[in-house]
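ok new one. same drill as before - C-alpha coordinates go in, u give me an amino acid for every spot. 325 of them this time. try not to just spam alanines like last time pls lmao
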Protein backbone atom coordinates (compact mmCIF):
# COMPACT_ATOMS: atom_id res chain seq x y z
CA UNK A 1 0.00 0.00 0.00
CA UNK A 2 1.85 3.08 -1.18
CA UNK A 3 0.18 6.39 -0.41
CA UNK A 4 3.15 8.63 0.10
CA UNK A 5 1.24 11.73 -1.06
CA UNK A 6 -1.55 11.29 1.47
CA UNK A 7 -1.61 13.75 4.36
CA UNK A 8 -0.73 11.98 7.57
CA UNK A 9 -2.58 13.08 10.67
CA UNK A 10 -1.68 12.36 14.27
CA UNK A 11 -1.75 8.69 15.28
CA UNK A 12 -4.91 7.26 16.82
CA UNK A 13 -4.75 7.17 20.61
CA UNK A 14 -3.96 3.93 22.35
CA UNK A 15 -6.78 2.29 24.28
CA UNK A 16 -6.44 3.67 27.86
CA UNK A 17 -5.84 0.24 29.43
CA UNK A 18 -3.31 -0.63 26.74
CA UNK A 19 -1.58 2.71 27.15
CA UNK A 20 -1.14 2.03 30.87
CA UNK A 21 0.14 -1.47 30.12
CA UNK A 22 2.60 -0.08 27.59
CA UNK A 23 3.93 2.45 30.08
CA UNK A 24 4.44 -0.32 32.66
CA UNK A 25 6.57 -2.41 30.31
CA UNK A 26 10.37 -2.32 30.49
CA UNK A 27 11.70 0.46 28.31
CA UNK A 28 12.19 -0.72 24.75
CA UNK A 29 14.07 0.98 21.91
CA UNK A 30 11.78 2.94 19.58
CA UNK A 31 12.93 0.84 16.63
CA UNK A 32 14.57 -2.58 16.69
CA UNK A 33 17.82 -2.96 14.77
CA UNK A 34 19.65 -6.03 13.55
CA UNK A 35 22.23 -5.77 16.33
CA UNK A 36 19.40 -6.36 18.86
CA UNK A 37 18.14 -9.52 17.18
CA UNK A 38 20.38 -11.91 19.14
CA UNK A 39 19.14 -10.51 22.45
CA UNK A 40 15.52 -10.63 21.28
CA UNK A 41 15.93 -14.25 20.18
CA UNK A 42 17.25 -15.20 23.62
CA UNK A 43 14.35 -13.42 25.31
CA UNK A 44 11.86 -15.22 23.06
CA UNK A 45 13.48 -18.60 23.69
CA UNK A 46 13.16 -18.10 27.45
CA UNK A 47 9.36 -17.90 26.99
CA UNK A 48 8.95 -21.04 24.86
CA UNK A 49 6.39 -23.60 25.94
CA UNK A 50 7.74 -27.02 26.90
CA UNK A 51 6.25 -30.29 25.68
CA UNK A 52 4.78 -30.71 29.18
CA UNK A 53 3.10 -27.31 28.89
CA UNK A 54 1.62 -28.22 25.52
CA UNK A 55 0.06 -31.46 26.74
CA UNK A 56 -2.24 -29.43 29.03
CA UNK A 57 -2.24 -32.07 31.74
CA UNK A 58 -2.57 -34.97 29.31
CA UNK A 59 -5.38 -33.54 27.20
CA UNK A 60 -3.01 -33.28 24.21
CA UNK A 61 -0.25 -35.45 22.76
CA UNK A 62 2.96 -33.90 21.46
CA UNK A 63 5.07 -35.40 18.67
CA UNK A 64 7.97 -34.12 16.60
CA UNK A 65 8.41 -34.55 12.84
CA UNK A 66 10.55 -33.31 9.98
CA UNK A 67 9.55 -32.25 6.48
CA UNK A 68 12.03 -32.25 3.63
CA UNK A 69 12.22 -28.80 2.04
CA UNK A 70 14.28 -27.24 -0.74
CA UNK A 71 16.59 -25.67 1.87
CA UNK A 72 16.89 -28.72 4.12
CA UNK A 73 14.92 -30.30 6.93
CA UNK A 74 12.00 -28.35 8.42
CA UNK A 75 11.07 -29.19 12.04
CA UNK A 76 7.37 -29.57 12.80
CA UNK A 77 5.70 -29.72 16.20
CA UNK A 78 2.39 -31.59 16.26
CA UNK A 79 -0.02 -31.16 19.18
CA UNK A 80 -3.25 -33.13 18.91
CA UNK A 81 -6.12 -33.97 21.26
CA UNK A 82 -5.44 -37.22 23.12
CA UNK A 83 -7.66 -40.12 22.11
CA UNK A 84 -9.29 -38.12 19.30
CA UNK A 85 -10.09 -39.77 16.00
CA UNK A 86 -9.95 -37.38 13.04
CA UNK A 87 -9.80 -33.65 13.71
CA UNK A 88 -9.59 -30.39 11.81
CA UNK A 89 -6.21 -28.70 12.17
CA UNK A 90 -4.30 -25.47 12.38
CA UNK A 91 -1.13 -25.24 10.33
CA UNK A 92 0.53 -22.53 12.43
CA UNK A 93 3.33 -20.13 11.39
CA UNK A 94 4.89 -18.13 14.22
CA UNK A 95 5.68 -14.41 14.31
CA UNK A 96 8.86 -12.51 15.07
CA UNK A 97 9.40 -9.95 12.32
CA UNK A 98 11.01 -12.53 10.02
CA UNK A 99 14.11 -12.52 12.28
CA UNK A 100 13.16 -14.29 15.53
CA UNK A 101 10.64 -16.60 17.18
CA UNK A 102 10.00 -20.32 17.13
CA UNK A 103 7.20 -22.82 16.67
CA UNK A 104 6.59 -22.96 20.42
CA UNK A 105 7.10 -19.27 21.23
CA UNK A 106 4.71 -17.06 23.20
CA UNK A 107 2.78 -15.82 20.15
CA UNK A 108 1.58 -19.38 19.48
CA UNK A 109 -0.29 -19.55 22.81
CA UNK A 110 -3.59 -18.20 21.48
CA UNK A 111 -3.57 -20.75 18.67
CA UNK A 112 -3.02 -23.60 21.13
CA UNK A 113 -5.83 -22.16 23.27
CA UNK A 114 -8.18 -22.07 20.27
CA UNK A 115 -7.21 -25.64 19.41
CA UNK A 116 -8.02 -26.73 22.96
CA UNK A 117 -11.38 -24.93 22.84
CA UNK A 118 -12.37 -26.48 19.51
CA UNK A 119 -10.62 -29.87 19.65
CA UNK A 120 -8.22 -29.15 16.79
CA UNK A 121 -4.76 -30.50 16.06
CA UNK A 122 -1.93 -27.97 15.66
CA UNK A 123 1.02 -28.47 13.30
CA UNK A 124 3.50 -25.68 14.10
CA UNK A 125 6.40 -25.09 11.72
CA UNK A 126 9.91 -23.94 12.70
CA UNK A 127 10.96 -22.12 9.52
CA UNK A 128 14.38 -20.64 8.84
CA UNK A 129 14.87 -17.01 9.90
CA UNK A 130 16.28 -13.97 8.15
CA UNK A 131 18.81 -12.45 7.76
CA UNK A 132 20.76 -15.75 7.78
CA UNK A 133 18.09 -17.23 5.52
CA UNK A 134 16.53 -14.55 3.26
CA UNK A 135 13.56 -15.00 0.92
CA UNK A 136 12.53 -17.51 -0.36
CA UNK A 137 13.78 -19.84 2.42
CA UNK A 138 11.17 -18.92 5.09
CA UNK A 139 8.10 -19.25 2.86
CA UNK A 140 9.42 -22.36 1.14
CA UNK A 141 10.00 -23.97 4.55
CA UNK A 142 6.41 -23.11 5.47
CA UNK A 143 5.07 -24.54 2.23
CA UNK A 144 7.12 -27.73 2.61
CA UNK A 145 5.61 -28.20 6.06
CA UNK A 146 2.10 -27.71 4.69
CA UNK A 147 2.72 -30.28 1.96
CA UNK A 148 4.04 -32.74 4.58
CA UNK A 149 0.93 -32.17 6.70
CA UNK A 150 -1.37 -32.96 3.78
CA UNK A 151 0.64 -36.03 2.79
CA UNK A 152 0.63 -37.39 6.34
CA UNK A 153 -2.90 -36.36 7.30
CA UNK A 154 -4.12 -39.93 7.81
CA UNK A 155 -1.19 -40.77 10.09
CA UNK A 156 -1.79 -37.58 12.08
CA UNK A 157 -5.54 -38.12 12.34
CA UNK A 158 -6.19 -34.86 10.50
CA UNK A 159 -8.98 -34.22 8.00
CA UNK A 160 -7.04 -32.87 4.97
CA UNK A 161 -10.07 -30.89 3.84
CA UNK A 162 -10.27 -28.95 7.12
CA UNK A 163 -6.79 -27.47 7.52
CA UNK A 164 -6.63 -23.79 8.50
CA UNK A 165 -3.38 -21.96 7.73
CA UNK A 166 -2.82 -19.51 10.58
CA UNK A 167 -0.09 -17.11 11.59
CA UNK A 168 0.69 -14.04 13.67
CA UNK A 169 2.52 -10.89 12.56
CA UNK A 170 5.37 -12.08 10.29
CA UNK A 171 3.78 -15.51 10.53
CA UNK A 172 0.51 -13.99 9.34
CA UNK A 173 2.30 -12.66 6.28
CA UNK A 174 3.91 -16.04 5.68
CA UNK A 175 0.51 -17.72 6.15
CA UNK A 176 -0.95 -15.47 3.45
CA UNK A 177 2.05 -16.19 1.20
CA UNK A 178 1.81 -19.95 1.80
CA UNK A 179 -1.88 -19.80 0.87
CA UNK A 180 -1.02 -17.96 -2.36
CA UNK A 181 1.61 -20.61 -3.16
CA UNK A 182 -0.86 -23.42 -2.55
CA UNK A 183 -3.42 -21.72 -4.82
CA UNK A 184 -0.94 -21.02 -7.62
CA UNK A 185 0.87 -24.38 -7.53
CA UNK A 186 -2.22 -26.54 -7.11
CA UNK A 187 -1.00 -27.47 -3.65
CA UNK A 188 -2.77 -28.83 -0.58
CA UNK A 189 -6.37 -27.86 0.12
CA UNK A 190 -6.72 -25.01 2.60
CA UNK A 191 -10.08 -24.65 4.32
CA UNK A 192 -9.42 -21.12 5.62
CA UNK A 193 -6.66 -18.70 6.56
CA UNK A 194 -6.47 -16.96 9.92
CA UNK A 195 -4.19 -13.93 9.85
CA UNK A 196 -3.43 -12.28 13.19
CA UNK A 197 -2.12 -8.70 12.61
CA UNK A 198 -0.23 -9.91 9.50
CA UNK A 199 2.94 -8.35 8.06
CA UNK A 200 2.01 -8.08 4.39
CA UNK A 201 3.69 -5.15 2.65
CA UNK A 202 7.45 -4.52 2.39
CA UNK A 203 6.92 -0.97 1.06
CA UNK A 204 6.08 0.32 4.55
CA UNK A 205 4.66 3.58 3.19
CA UNK A 206 1.06 3.48 4.42
CA UNK A 207 -0.48 6.20 6.56
CA UNK A 208 -0.50 3.89 9.58
CA UNK A 209 3.17 3.01 9.08
CA UNK A 210 4.03 6.68 8.93
CA UNK A 211 1.87 7.50 11.96
CA UNK A 212 3.57 4.89 14.10
CA UNK A 213 7.17 6.05 13.80
CA UNK A 214 8.71 5.54 17.24
CA UNK A 215 5.37 4.53 18.84
CA UNK A 216 4.07 1.33 20.35
CA UNK A 217 5.42 -2.10 19.46
CA UNK A 218 7.01 -2.78 16.05
CA UNK A 219 7.12 0.72 14.63
CA UNK A 220 7.97 1.71 11.07
CA UNK A 221 11.74 1.48 11.70
CA UNK A 222 11.45 -2.04 13.13
CA UNK A 223 9.37 -2.97 10.12
CA UNK A 224 12.08 -1.64 7.78
CA UNK A 225 14.60 -3.81 9.62
CA UNK A 226 12.48 -6.98 9.31
CA UNK A 227 11.75 -6.55 5.62
CA UNK A 228 15.34 -5.61 4.81
CA UNK A 229 16.57 -8.71 6.65
CA UNK A 230 14.28 -10.80 4.44
CA UNK A 231 14.71 -9.00 1.11
CA UNK A 232 17.96 -7.05 1.25
CA UNK A 233 18.27 -4.31 -1.34
CA UNK A 234 15.15 -5.56 -3.15
CA UNK A 235 12.87 -4.26 -0.36
CA UNK A 236 10.50 -1.65 -1.72
CA UNK A 237 11.46 -2.23 -5.35
CA UNK A 238 9.42 -3.70 -8.19
CA UNK A 239 11.29 -7.01 -7.84
CA UNK A 240 9.52 -8.24 -4.70
CA UNK A 241 7.57 -11.48 -5.06
CA UNK A 242 4.02 -11.81 -3.67
CA UNK A 243 5.28 -14.97 -1.99
CA UNK A 244 7.57 -12.70 0.07
CA UNK A 245 5.12 -9.81 0.55
CA UNK A 246 1.51 -10.89 -0.17
CA UNK A 247 0.36 -7.28 -0.62
CA UNK A 248 2.29 -7.41 -3.91
CA UNK A 249 -0.07 -10.04 -5.31
CA UNK A 250 -2.11 -8.67 -8.22
CA UNK A 251 -4.74 -11.41 -7.93
CA UNK A 252 -6.47 -12.19 -4.63
CA UNK A 253 -9.26 -14.27 -6.15
CA UNK A 254 -9.94 -17.90 -5.33
CA UNK A 255 -8.60 -17.71 -1.81
CA UNK A 256 -10.19 -19.62 1.09
CA UNK A 257 -12.33 -17.80 3.68
CA UNK A 258 -10.04 -15.38 5.48
CA UNK A 259 -10.08 -13.90 8.99
CA UNK A 260 -7.94 -10.84 9.60
CA UNK A 261 -7.51 -8.66 12.66
CA UNK A 262 -5.33 -5.69 13.52
CA UNK A 263 -5.16 -2.75 15.93
CA UNK A 264 -6.03 0.77 14.81
CA UNK A 265 -2.81 2.10 16.40
CA UNK A 266 -0.25 -0.14 14.75
CA UNK A 267 1.98 -0.08 11.68
CA UNK A 268 0.10 -2.85 9.85
CA UNK A 269 -3.41 -1.33 10.11
CA UNK A 270 -3.78 0.02 6.58
CA UNK A 271 -2.16 -2.88 4.74
CA UNK A 272 -4.42 -5.36 6.56
CA UNK A 273 -7.56 -3.31 5.80
CA UNK A 274 -6.51 -3.06 2.16
CA UNK A 275 -5.80 -6.80 1.91
CA UNK A 276 -9.30 -7.59 3.20
CA UNK A 277 -10.84 -5.03 0.83
CA UNK A 278 -9.00 -6.53 -2.13
CA UNK A 279 -10.23 -10.02 -1.23
CA UNK A 280 -13.79 -8.65 -1.21
CA UNK A 281 -13.16 -6.83 -4.49
CA UNK A 282 -12.05 -10.13 -6.02
CA UNK A 283 -15.29 -11.80 -4.94
CA UNK A 284 -13.80 -13.54 -1.92
CA UNK A 285 -14.89 -14.03 1.68
CA UNK A 286 -13.13 -12.16 4.48
CA UNK A 287 -13.92 -11.19 8.06
CA UNK A 288 -11.98 -8.16 9.28
CA UNK A 289 -11.70 -6.77 12.81
CA UNK A 290 -9.92 -3.49 13.54
CA UNK A 291 -9.57 -3.08 17.29
CA UNK A 292 -9.68 0.59 18.36
CA UNK A 293 -6.54 1.77 20.11
CA UNK A 294 -4.79 -1.58 19.78
CA UNK A 295 -1.01 -1.60 19.38
CA UNK A 296 0.82 -4.45 17.65
CA UNK A 297 0.65 -7.65 19.68
CA UNK A 298 -1.61 -6.23 22.37
CA UNK A 299 -3.31 -9.57 23.00
CA UNK A 300 0.01 -11.19 23.80
CA UNK A 301 1.51 -8.30 25.75
CA UNK A 302 -1.56 -7.12 27.66
CA UNK A 303 -3.90 -10.14 27.87
CA UNK A 304 -5.54 -8.84 31.05
CA UNK A 305 -7.13 -5.85 29.30
CA UNK A 306 -10.75 -5.76 28.20
CA UNK A 307 -9.77 -5.04 24.58
CA UNK A 308 -7.48 -8.09 24.45
CA UNK A 309 -10.19 -10.31 25.87
CA UNK A 310 -12.72 -8.87 23.41
CA UNK A 311 -10.41 -9.34 20.43
CA UNK A 312 -10.09 -13.06 21.00
CA UNK A 313 -13.81 -13.70 21.18
CA UNK A 314 -14.89 -13.71 17.48
CA UNK A 315 -12.36 -16.29 16.25
CA UNK A 316 -13.99 -19.35 17.73
CA UNK A 317 -17.43 -18.67 16.20
CA UNK A 318 -15.79 -17.90 12.84
CA UNK A 319 -13.87 -21.18 12.91
CA UNK A 320 -17.02 -23.08 13.85
CA UNK A 321 -18.75 -21.60 10.81
CA UNK A 322 -16.00 -22.20 8.26
CA UNK A 323 -15.10 -25.68 9.55
CA UNK A 324 -18.62 -26.85 10.31
CA UNK A 325 -17.74 -27.67 13.93
Amino acid sequence: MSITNTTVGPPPPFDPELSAALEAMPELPGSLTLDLVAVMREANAAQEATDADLTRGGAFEVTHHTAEGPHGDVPLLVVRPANATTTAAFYYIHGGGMVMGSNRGPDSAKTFELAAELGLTVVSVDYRLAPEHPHPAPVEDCYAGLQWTAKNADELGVDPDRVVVAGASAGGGLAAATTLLARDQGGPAIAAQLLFCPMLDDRNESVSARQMVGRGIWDRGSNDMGWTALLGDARGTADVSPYAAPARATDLSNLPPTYLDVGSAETFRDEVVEYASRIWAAGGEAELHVWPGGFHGFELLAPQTLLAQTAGAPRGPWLRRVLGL
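The mean pLDDT is 95. and btw Residues 162 and 238 are 35 Å apart (CA to CA).
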